[in-house]
Amino acid sequence: MWNTPDICDDYPTQVTPLAPLYQNFGGVKAFSGEVETVKCFEDNSRVKELLSTPGHGRVLVVDGGASLRCALIGDLIAASAIENGWSGIVIRGCCRDVHELQTMPFGVRALASIPLKSTRKGAGESGVTIDMDGVEVRPGMWLYADETGMLISDESLPIETGHRD
Ligand SMILES: O=C([O-])CC(=O)C(=O)O
């Protein structure tokens, strides 16, 4: 069974850990996939839009500016992401509907949870290079998340992955 410490040991020059600032809110503890990105601030228009298009197993990495004032996803957007085949989401910001997210077959990492939802006025960009707490993340990179932490790699690594309970 794969795990992030073994990946670090086996591919030390290919992976970079994300800062250990994120909590697990989803129903799957380990997930991986090709990265898509969103940069936004207290407006989840791009997040909702992207997660309602085919995910093909990808992970959406969102630089929400570390805002702790509102949530960029809840159970409805997560349900749409699952329906569209996304593997998970990593949010430099907050989520909500934690009770529901915990039961869903979806990877969710966020800084924190908060009951208030964000606005949706069309702000934000997708498919851009983002800075996740000092680590540059670009669309097409690969993300591996498990109980220990998260890794970013330029390319898909030759390991057996997928959701892990
Ligand atoms: O709709 C939103 O902006 C966030 C939310 O609560 C959900 O996804 O269920």
Entry keywords:
165 residues, alpha/beta, 10-stranded mixed β-sheet, two-stranded antiparallel ribbon, 32% strand, binds oxaloacetate ion, EC 4.1.3.17, RraA/RraA-like
Question: Which SSEs are present, and which pair or pack?
Answer:
Blueprint: H1 4-10, E1 15-17, E2 23-24, E3 31-39, H2 45-51, E4 59-63, E5 71-73, H3 75-83, E6 88-95, H4 98-101, E7 107-113, E8 125-126, E9 130-132, E10 135-137, E11 142-145, E12 150-153
Give a written overview of the molecule.
With 165 residues, the chain is an alpha/beta fold. It has a single domain (4-11, 24-152), classed as 3-Layer(bba) Sandwich (Glucose Oxidase, domain 1), CATH 3.50.30.40. It has four helices and twelve strands. It has helices at 4-10, 45-51, 75-83, 98-101, and strands at residues 15-17, 23-24, 31-39, 59-63, 71-73, 88-95, 107-113, 125-126, 130-132, 135-137, 142-145, 150-153. Strands 1, 2, 3, 4, 5, 6, 7, 8, 11 and 12 form a ten-stranded mixed sheet that branches. The protein has a two-stranded antiparallel sheet with strand order 9-10. α4 links the parallel β6 (88-95) and β7. The chain starts with a helix and ends in a 12-residue tail after the last strand. The mean pLDDT is 96. The structure holds oxaloacetate ion (OAA). Keywords: Lyase, Magnesium, Metal-binding.
